[in-house]
Amino acid sequence: MIKLLLPLMATTAFLLSPYVDAKTQKREPWENNQVFAINKEAPHATIFPFLSRDAALINVKEQNDNFMLLNGLWKFDWQRSPKNKPDGFQTANFNDEKWSQIPVPGNWETEGFGYPIYLDERFPFTTTWPDAPKDYNPIGSYRKPFSLPKSWQGKQVFLHVGAAKSSLDVWLNGEKVGFSQGSKTPAEFDISKYLQADKNLLAFQIRRWTDASYLESQDMLRISGIERDVYLYATPKQHVFDVHAKPTLNKNFTQGTLTVDVTLKNYDNKKANQHVEVQLLDPRSNMKVLLSKKSKVKLSAKGSIEVSLAGNIKQPALWSAETPNLYTLLVNLKDSKGNTIESVRDDIGFRHLEVVNSQLTINGKAITIRGVDRHETDPQHGHVVTKASMEKDIQLMKQFNINAVRSSHYPNNPYWYELTDKYGLYVIDEANIESHPLAIDEKTQLGNEMSWLGAHLDRTQRMFERDKNHPSIIIWSLGNEAGKGKIFEATYKWLKDNDTSRLVQYEPAGEAHYTDVFAPMYPSIERLIKYAESDPSRPGIMIEYAHAMGNSVGNLKDYWQVIEKYDVLQGGFIWDWVDQSLEYTNENGVKYWAYGKDFHPDLASDGNFLNNGLMSPDRKPNPHAFEVKKVYQAIRFAALDINKGNYSIENRYDFIDLAQYDLHWKVEADGELFAQGHQSMPSVKPGKKAAIDVSLPTLPSSDNKEYFITLSAVLRTPQGLLSTGHELAFEQFKLPVKLAQAKVSPRTANMSKMTIEQDNNSALVLKSDNTQVTFNKNTGWLTQYSHNNTSLLKAPLKANFWRAPTDNDLGNGMQKWAAIWQTASDNLTLTSFESTKISNGIKVITHHTAADFKGDYQVEYIVKHDGQIHVQNNLTIVSGQTLPNLPRLGMQLTMPGEFQQLSWFGRGPHENYADRKTSAQVSLYKSLVKDQIHHYVRPQENANKTDVRWLALKNNEGSGLLAVGDQLLNASAWPYKQSDIDFIAGKDGEESASGLVPVTTKRGAEVPMRNLVTVNIDHKQMGVGGDTSWGRLVHAQYTIPAKSYQYGFTLVPFSAEPASKATVNVAELARSVK
Question: Which domain holds residue 698?
Answer without folding.
Answer: 633-739
